[in-house]
Structures are given as structure tokens and as C-alpha cells.
Amino acid sequence: MVGVTIPNGLPGQLSRRQVGKRITILCLWYPCSTLATIVSLVLSLPNLEALSIVGAGAESEEPPSSHPVTSQTAPLRLLDLRGNIGGIGKALAESRFVSRCLSLDVQILGVEQLIAVSSETAVNLALYGVLILRFFMERERW
Amino acid sequence: MVTSFLDTFTKEIPHFTHPLSLPALTTLNIDLGKGDPSPRLTSILCSISSAPALGSITIGNDGRFNIGRSSQGPWGDMDRWLARVAEHTKVQGGLSAILKRWPEGESVSEGFLRDFRRAGGQVKTDVRS
């Protein structure tokens, strides 16, 4: 999803209707949503294998979860976080979101915690000093 | 479109109270954009105290690698961290640092990443992007 507004109620609907279990890849590029909604959406997808969030600019002090969520059942294949994504990285780290491949902008809030949380499982680590659109070409390699 | 995030955007350099061990890590890719290694990046790297399975580190730079002052400054910090990782790698053949987007036809000066080489690391170049 590029530049779309995620309805606040979507994470809850996905959880209730079991639709979230069928989603394995989620790409959010420049989403227009609160931190709470984005994190809740991610946490409502128990079988997620790859997550990419780019330049969300999410700003919110609202707690990330206001409805039941399922916990991560297995490490992600890829966690890719770039740009100004506000507190999303920190929130995912606090939710103990684990991945085998990490692709992270070093300016992300909570990047250290994200690496620490995946310290036992991380096989590949990519650190980016700048956000560049090379990402859109390189992501094919993952 | 190129969007850069400068170090000045980061109000605090992260402080690590617990050194990180990454026992399963086999490859590390670092993209510097057009700059030298930033304090933020160096701080994150220095927090990694152990990566025994790490065999390959790719360093990409769109500008010119600043090879003249490698014993000091940001490259010196990275050199010392690379040396530390190279000393403790358990990978057969040792740790390799691959410099991506290296200017074609140019060789790497002997002083560049000297500590890393002394620790058994190999410096390779790759002209491709």
C-alpha cells in the first residue's frame, strides 16, 4: 500500500474475521496513519513473513494496541524499515518482533532495540545511512 | 529523488549498556550513501561485540571512499571495529570487506583499513552498484 490512509478499525476487523492469518507480506510505503493503527495492523497478522515500512512519518502518543492481537508465531523472513517512521521501530522492538533478515535505516528510533531483539536469529543485517530509492531495486534480492 | 537523513536529525547518540552478540549473522551490508560512516552508524556497529559467523561485510559508497585518513575519524573507528570482528571470526578464510561501487581501475591504498588487514581481514573491491 502506497500513501494510503489505513482505517483505525482495520486491524480489529482483520483479527475478528481471521483474514489476517492469510496475509504473509505487508508493504506500507508512506502510509497516512497513526502509530497505533500501523503497529496494531502489523500485530494483527500472525503469519507475517515479510514487513516493509518506508517513510511513514507516523506521529502519535496513543498506545499501539487497543484490541486483542495475536503474537508472532515465527521469525519474519525480512523486516525492512526506512525513513521517518516515527516510533514504529521502537514499538515493534517492544513487541519482540523478530526477523532473520533486517534492513534498517540507522536513523530509525529504536534501531538498536530491533537488532537486539533479533540478535539470536539475524542472519543478514543491512544498515542504511541514507534513504534512497535503490531500495526499490534491491528488494528483489531478498 | 534522494532523501538524506543527517546525523543532526538524531538528538541522541545511542548508548548501549549491553554489548550485542549476533551468533547467526553471516552477512552485513552497509550503505553509506555519499558520506563517511556516521557517528550513529559507528555507534551501532560498535555495539556489536561478537559475530563469529560473519564472513562478509559489504560497504557501499556513492561518493569516493575517503582513503587518506583511515587511521583517524569515522573510517578509523570503522577500521578498529572491523579489526575486532576479524580477530574473532570463526569463518574459514576469515572476514572479507567488499567495497562496492569502487572507482574502476583504482587500487586500494595500503593504509586503508590497516588494522582490519593486520587482523587477518581481506579488502576486496567491486565496481558494480
Structural class of chain A: alpha/beta
Helix content of chain B: 10-25%
Give the largest interface: A-B, 26 and 35 residues
Distance between the termini of chain A: 19 Å
**What is the arithmetic mean of pLDDT of chain B?**
81
Number of separate strands of chain A: 6
Strand content of chain B: 15-25%
Shape of chain A: globular
Q: What is the alpha-carbon Rg of chain B in Å? A: 14 Å
* Biggest sheet, spatial arrangement of strands of chain B: 3-5-6-7
Instruction: Compute the number of structural domains of chain B.
Output: 1
Strand order of the largest sheet of chain A: 1-2-3-4-5
Low-confidence stretches of chain B: 1-16
What is the molecular shape of chain B?
globular
List the total number of helices of chain B. 3
What's the helix count of chain A?
5
Order of helical and strand elements of chain B:
EEEHEEHEHE
Distance between the termini of chain B: 17 Å
How many domains of chain A? Answer: 1
What is the residue-mean pLDDT of chain A, rounded to a whole number?
A: 80
Describe the structure.
The complex is a heterodimer of chains A (142) and B (129). With 142 residues, chain A is α/β, with parallel strands linked by helices. Chain A is 25% helix and 22% strand. Chain A has one domain. In chain A, helix 3 links the parallel strand 3 and strand 4. The two termini of chain A are 19 Å apart. Chain B has one domain. In chain B, the strands form two sheets. A four-stranded parallel sheet of chain B has the order 3-5-6-7, with no helix packed on it. In chain B, helix 1 packs parallel to helix 2. At the A-B interface, helix 4, strand 5 and strand 6 of A face strand 1, strand 2, strand 3 and helix 1 of B.
